[in-house]
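can u do me a favor
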């Protein structure tokens, strides 16, 4: 099988690295999956490039072996740590004849891609929000309309340049070439939030191991996002200390007990040294888990309130990431956040990597059709590409990203 027939996505997490290999034309199904603990990551930040490379190599090897193929390029996704969303505007005068062309739209996107950002940051993604012709907003494609000025409001997603460079360096130490770097929550949202939810207002809450990403959508498009430096690992750590057991045992019992009511029964857990065992009350375990989860959810609520800027979110909350698997999480989150809450149906631990592989497959299709890549450093504009911008506006989700700044 040739490299052109397969694509791969890599979710670089604080707790685990997940690689998914998929076949072009059948990217809905994973041809191979590899997962291993993360080395070199802490709270969404790269602290050891070689450690990252070691984990990436293992996860990718497992995925390749399961799929029976070899890959040379990969689409990399991360939690969004350090991301900042700016609202920017750009406008251009329409040339002689006053009829808007695809080139005019391309020029607007290029202006926003090159917008000035603080030192040490780069534009990773441009998310169109709304076009206007002579000040009149347009939801539809303005190409072909007549006017003297075309304007665009967009969300410009910027990221810490050093973080992206370190991610790329860690992956490329394995011999792979990074095709694209993507903010996971923005990519996952386009697949799991439906049009009505994005239009009414909704939030995607990605409960990871070391971080929790909160992304808010309203009126069909991205509003803002933020990453909180707490996640499932903190629950496990609290539990291990509280019942004096190992992190491995605490993680296992956390998944088994969760947030559901427990009878006053006991379980045997290994001691911290692993030389003996001790009894721990299930009700005590549940109380420790719930205490930390409530702290995380309170931070999530504060973050949603800040990002939504006073707007209500009738579309509710979608929980994803490994932390959403905790038994009783949706019910407790609904009470704390005072909004409808649902959990993503696909396996949360693998979800981001699966979407990354699908995104890579769609990118292959776009390249083959010479369609638009709305990405930092990578623009191939044309009539088909401009149509893709308006598909984005109709669907209401962000599109495109890249490793170049």
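np, heres the sequence
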């Amino acid at each position: 099988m040739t490299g052109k027939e397969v694509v791969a996505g890599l979710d670089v997490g604080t707790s685990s690295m997940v690689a998914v290999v998929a076949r072009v034309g059948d990217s809905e199904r994973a041809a191979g999956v590899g997962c291993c603990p993360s080395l070199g990551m802490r709270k969404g930040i790269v602290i050891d490039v070689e450690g990252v490379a070691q984990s990436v190599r293992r996860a990718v090897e497992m995925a390749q072996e399961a799929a029976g193929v070899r890959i040379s390029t990969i689409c990399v996704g991360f939690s969004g740590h350090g991301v900042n969303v700016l609202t920017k505007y750009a406008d251009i005068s329409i040339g002689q004849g006053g009829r808007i062309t695809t080139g005019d739209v391309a020029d607007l996107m290029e202006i926003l891609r090159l917008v000035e950002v603080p030192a040490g940051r780069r534009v990773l993604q441009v998310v169109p929000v709304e076009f206007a012709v002579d000040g009149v907003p347009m939801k539809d494609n303005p190409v072909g309309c007549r006017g003297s000025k075309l304007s665009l409001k967009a969300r410009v997603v910027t990221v810490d340049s050093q973080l992206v460079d370190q991610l790329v360096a860690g992956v490329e130490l394995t011999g792979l070439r990074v095709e694209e770097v993507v903010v996971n929550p923005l990519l996952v949202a386009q697949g799991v939030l439906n049009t009505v939810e994005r239009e009414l207002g909704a939030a995607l809450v990605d409960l990871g191991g070391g971080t929790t990403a909160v992304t808010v959508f309203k009126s069909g498009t991205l509003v803002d996002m933020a990453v909180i430096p707490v996640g499932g690992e903190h629950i496990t750590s609290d539990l291990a200390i509280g019942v004096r057991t190992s992190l491995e045992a605490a993680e296992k019992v956390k998944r088994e007990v969760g947030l559901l009511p427990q009878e006053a029964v006991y379980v045997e857990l290994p001691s911290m040294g692993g030389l003996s065992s001790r009894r721990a009350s299930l009700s005590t375990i549940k109380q420790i888990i719930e205490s930390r989860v409530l702290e995380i959810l309170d931070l999530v609520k504060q973050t949603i309130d800040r990002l939504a800027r006073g707007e209500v979110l009738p579309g509710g909350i979608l929980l994803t990431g490994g932390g959403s698997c905790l038994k009783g999480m949706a019910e407790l989150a609904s009470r704390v956040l005072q909004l409808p809450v649902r959990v993503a149906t696909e396996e949360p631990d693998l979800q981001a990597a699966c979407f990354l592989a699908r995104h890579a497959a769609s990118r292959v299709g776009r390249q083959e059709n010479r369609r638009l890549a709305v990405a930092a450093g990578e623009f191939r504009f044309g009539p088909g590409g401009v149509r893709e911008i308006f598909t984005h506006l109709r669907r209401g989700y962000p599109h495109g990203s890249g490793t170049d700044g």
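Confidence is low (pLDDT under 50) at residues 368-387, 394-405. hope that helps!!
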